[in-house]
Amino acid sequence: PDKFTIAIDGPAASGKGTLARRLASQYGLHHLDTGLTYRGVAKALIDADEPLDDVAIAERAARALDLGALDRAVLSAHGIGEAASKVAVMTPVRTALVDKQRAFAATPPGAVLDGRDIGTVVCPEADVKLYVIASPEVRATRRWREIEAGGGTADYARILADIERRDARDMGREDSPLRPANDAHLLDTSEMDIETAFQAACKLVDARL
Ligand code: C5P
């Protein structure tokens, strides 16, 4: 086959991003963090002083988004994740971004995409699907450590509350809610370090190569 697709879904701070990057580098595949596309739309609206819930304006921003110009350093700010989950409930925004994500996945030799709806909506024919979870407490602790390690200060209770609110919005929305595809492999990283999770994922990929 001329392309191989790995779909990785899961909630915020589950470890799916690190896993996706490592798998892409291990198998020589492109990598797209699709969360950055929703974040890019949210950031464009914030910068232009536009509301986050105007469908026509948000759709235009989504259509104008250039996948090649997404800057992780700017877009990974904590508050942008919350704004991204608001623009992500709008179907016209999702349709525009999913088109771009599918075009990315179609480029040989294929790609690892991580997000919320990759295995269910964006790439339902993916060769390998992983659904990565961890308890909200473990995820909040990871976020907290990341922020502290970067020299910032963070409030654990607030991070946990943010994570739970974002989970609820992502799992509860009508269009493309966060849920495992029927044929996804579940990886619970609550008590598993990233190396162990990576080894487990490689076994699943190797079995499909
Ligand atoms: O993964 P990340 O935290 O960067 O995603 C930000 C937000 O973008 C998520 O909370 C979710 O609402 C939205 N998203 C989505 N579908 C994806 C990826 C992200 O709805 N495939």
UniProtKB/TrEMBL annotation:
Residues 6-203 form the Cytidylate kinase domain. Keywords: ATP-binding, Cytoplasm, Kinase, Nucleotide-binding, Transferase. It catalyses: CMP + ATP = CDP + ADP; dCMP + ATP = dCDP + ADP. Its EC number is 2.7.4.25. Pfam families: Cytidylate_kin. It is found in: Cytoplasm. Its main location: cytoplasm. ATP binds at residues 10-18. It is an enzyme of class 2 (transferase). The keyword Transport does not apply. SUPFAM superfamilies: P-loop containing nucleoside triphosphate hydrolases. One of its GO terms (molecular function) is kinase activity. The keyword Transferase applies. HAMAP family: Cytidyl_kinase_type1. Belongs to the cytidylate kinase family. Type 1 subfamily. This is Cytidylate kinase. The lineage of its organism: Bacteria, Pseudomonadati, Pseudomonadota, Alphaproteobacteria, Hyphomicrobiales.
